[in-house]
Amino acid sequence: MDIELAQSELTATDILIDVREPDEFVMGHLQGAAHIPRGLLEFKMNASEALSARDLKILVYCKNGGRSSLAAKTLVEMGYLSVQAKAGGL
Q: Of 36, 45, 60, 62, which residue is the catalytic one?
């Protein structure tokens, strides 16, 4: 993906979620990303009023793409309507 396309995807996103573990997040993350580890995703999404709107445009990422794919699937199952997982991870 080229830089311009990636930037336009990020701009069109309401929330960018990094589902990696805390030690991975502190080593580096995309600017503006919310840190919600995969194991806490359902709890954090349900506990936050700001994240409760099911029409949020959500982009999820991780290191290699596996956790973000699972997280995106979970979010869709929770009723979120516009969820994407960044292919290939960081």
A: 62
